[in-house]
Amino acid sequence: MVKLVSDRIIINKSAVNIFNFLGDFNNFEKLMPEQIINWKSTEFACSFTIKGMANIRMRIEEKNHHSHIHIKSDGKVPFDFDMMFFLEAIDEEKAKVHIELEADISTMLLLMAKKPLQNLINIMISKLKEHHE
User: Fold this and answer.
1) What pLDDT score was predicted for residue 116?
2) Which phi and psi angles does 92 have, rounded to 5°?
3) What is the pLDDT at residue 54?
4) Rounded to an integer, what distance in angstroms lies between the CA atom of residue 94 and that of residue 51?
5) What is the reported pTM?
């Protein structure tokens, strides 16, 4: 099991606003890097292809009121993972946000996947900030 943590950022929007955005997978395509193709989503699930690599499916497992969203891999994926978004209200118009990714990944695959996975969550958090500011 490997645990990766994104950059911790401050976004000039309310935690409620960010939570509502992240609580709907239809918004996630805006957070994805250019290597993501074949995006399909509903409010609670999504699927996509990482160009030249793998098909991924995810679903929202749990939402905790304006503070935490837990996403799980779904179906046949190269490895099981959990992605968690943590939101902390600083004031009514500012929130601290970060992503944690826990992957059940073999040592061999980890050597190839660790850097791209770290880049993915950092890109997602950066695009989340760009989108809201």
Assistant:
1) 87
2) -70, -20
3) 83
4) 35
5) 0.93
CA-based nearest residue to 18, from 80, 69, 78, 72: 69
Q: Which two tokens stand for residue 19?
A: 């939570």
Domain boundaries, the chain: 2-132
pLDDT along the chain (133 residues), means of 10: 95 96 96 93 95 89 94 92 97 96 91 89 97 92
Given this model, what pLDDT does residue 83 score?
98
Token pair in block for residue 7: 């950059």
Residue identified by tokens 């509502």 is 20
What architecture is the 2-132 domain classified under in CATH? 2-Layer Sandwich (3.30)
Return the DSSP state at 132: H
Backbone φ, ψ for residue 66 (5° rounding): 60, 15
| Residues forming beta bridges with residue 41, ordered by sequence position | 46
Burial classification of residue 124, based on how many CB atoms lie within 10 Å of its CB (0-12 exposed, 13-18 middle, 19 or more buried):
buried
User: CA 88 to CA 13: how far, in whole Å?
Assistant: 11
Angle CA(131)–CA(8)–CA(70) in degrees, nearest 5? Answer: 75
3-state secondary structure of 43: coil
